[in-house]
Structures are given as structure tokens and as C-alpha cells.
Amino acid sequence: MAITSDQWKEVEKELYGSYGTVKLKHQGNELTLNKILIAENKLAIAVYINSQIKPSMGHPDFDSFDQCTEQYWHRKTKAKYPPSRQKSLLKIWGKRELKNKGIDLESKHIWYDPFFTKFNPLKAQFKKLNDLEISSIGYQQDVA
Predict the structure, then answer these.
(1) Is residue 31 a contact partner of residue 47, using CB atoms and an 8 Å limit?
(2) Which member of 11, 43, 91, 134 has the greatest number of CB atoms within 10 A?
(3) Burial of 15 by CB count in 10 Å (0-12 exposed, 13-18 middle, 19+ buried)?
(4) DSSP classification of residue 118
(5) How crowded is residue 135: how many other Cβ atoms within 10 Å of its Cβ?
(6) pLDDT tens digits for 63-113?
(7) DSSP secondary structure letter of residue 91
(8) Rounded to an integer, what distance in angstroms lies between the CA atom of residue 73 and that of residue 27?
(9) What does pTM read for this prediction?
(10) Are the C-beta atoms of residues 59 and 67 closer than 8 Å to each other?
(11) In sequence order, what are the residues at sequence separation of 6 or more whose Cβ sits closer than 8 angstroms to the Cβ of residue 61?
């Protein structure tokens, strides 16, 4: 069952201000979207997977990499060699020697970040997921 456009509006409204919480379910995972402060005067929507955010979960090179971060977290890339470094390497070694050494100047670091600074990229990524359900909107305290 997909989330309707009216439900997406409710989610956006909840996460619009300085704080907000939305809980979702997808394929046995509980996703918690929290509006949090990530830096001085900078808010973002944090995506907790089963109540966890571990930075190493989003790095494919680490042993603790979790495949589900590819679905839920924001994909980030950065060039291994910035343009100024590429230029100096080409000047020193030349294109042929770099190829012989196995250095790919176009390679990139890829990782997944649990923070979305805007709602629309989060919505676009989550709309691609099948069987995404809303558990709750707003903070609800467990009553024992």
C-alpha cells in the first residue's frame, strides 16, 4: 500500500518546523524521521533505521556497512582526486604512466548520509519504495 499525496502533505507539515517525528515501516524495518539540529543553526531530517544511526553503516568500504542504507539514506559522492590534484598528477606523470600505475583520476568516494537538509529529496527517494507505510505522525509516548 503506497502513501497517498495527502499523507505526504501531512508528513511534510510535521517535518516543516523546528522539530517533528514520523515513523514509517518498510519490509520489516522501522524508519524514524526526526527533525534535528546537526550543526549550529542548521536543521536536517535524520533517518533512523530500527532506531539506529551509525555513520559506518553508510560506508560501503566498512565491515559494518548495511545494504538497506542504499534505500533509505542520501547518496553522497566526492572525487578522489579534485581537479587541481588531477592537473598536477597529469603534469608530473602523464596520462599513460597514470594508467600503467592503475590510477583512475575519475574515481569517486561513495557513501550514504542519514541526513536530508530538505524534504523534497527525501520524499523523492522514499516514493520509489514499495510497501512503505506510515506508523505514526507526531511524537507519541508509549503508555505502560
Answers:
(1) yes
(2) 11
(3) buried
(4) S
(5) 12
(6) 889 888 999 999 999 999 999 998 999 999 898 998 888 888 888 999 999
(7) H
(8) 16
(9) 0.81
(10) no
(11) none
